[in-house]
Amino acid sequence: MKKILYICVLSCCFTAAFANAATLIVEGKYQQKNLYIQNGFSSNGVGFCAYEVKVNGQVTTDEVNSSAFEIDFAPFKFKAGDKITIEIGHKDGCIPKVLNPEAIKPRPTFDLISIDINKDAVLTWGTKNELGSLPYVVEQFKWNKWVYVGEVNGEGTPLQHSYNFKVTPNSGENKFRVKQVGYGGIPRYSKEVTYSSLMDKPSFKVDTESKSVGFSNETAFEVYDYYGNVLKKGFGSSVDISSLNKGKYYLCYDNVVTEIEKKR
Fold first, then answer.
1. What is the DSSP code string of the chain?
2. Is the pLDDT of residue 15 over 80?
């Protein structure tokens, strides 16, 4: 009877010790690297802040009773790109710090196998060695810069994958590429592909009331002020400029950059 009572007392003490506790949750994709945790003392100065680590719901055997420790993913036999959720149980009044959060953030690691564009203006590309799902951003070179035209979400695994995206070409020669941007904002680009369009170059005209700009064909457009601020942006056969102040502006359309004047 005394033995049972002793076990119950121990259990109650253990529960009370972590009654004022919280959990730090860190999520990401396995990038073949471990996490390092800075683990300070608890707020009352007794023991360390973190007391338990779980990876995808399983308690790890990592030694957390130190000022810094490593979360070793090797025992879990993850494959590159696998989703992982880390739960760090810690005492109230203190929070452990992840020293290298980028270790589980997707990075643009793809290797380009092929990229091409067909007669129907469908851009296709094949890749391998993705470590985490990131969008492929499709860009078109026009108006003296690379312009965003759309995106396709990457599969995020090392296997070979194929993607496609229907683009809208300008008249004449077009250049396209894809890129991924991961943790830290560092992009990874594909090579460029070109596409020649036989469509007529659109013309434009500002109406006599200076309320709109009309195009002879539908086209993507942007209107800038002299400071480089985008005031109007879209796709169509006209753009409403009635809300703009009197003055001069830059008009970008098709593959042209020109100047227009709003006279009233």
1. -HHHHHHHHHHHHHHHHTSSEEEEEEEEE--S--EEEE--B-TTSSSBSEEEEEETTEEP----SSSEEEE--GGGTPPTT-EEEEEEEEETT---EES-GGGGS-B---EEEEEEE-TT-EEEEEEE--BS--EEEEEEEETTEEEEEEEEE---SSS-EEEEEE----SEEEEEEEEEE-TTS-EEE---EEEEE-SPPP-EEE-TTSSEEEEEEEEEEEEE-TT--EEEEEEEEEEE-TTSPSEEEEEEETTEEEEEEE--
2. no
pLDDT at 58 over 50: yes
Q: Is the pLDDT of residue 252 over 90?
A: yes
- Any idea which residue has 């680009």 for tokens? 189
Tell which residue, 130, 125, 194, 126, has the closest CA to residue 165: 125
Q: Which two tokens stand for residue 131?
A: 């470590």
Could you tell me the pTM of the whole model? 0.76
Look-up: residue for tokens 């919280």? 22
Whether the predicted pLDDT of 167 surpasses 60: yes
List of residues 6+ apart from 18 with CB closer than 8 A: 51, 89, 91
Q: What is the pLDDT of residues 22-49, one digit of tens each?
A: 999 999 989 889 999 999 888 887 889 9
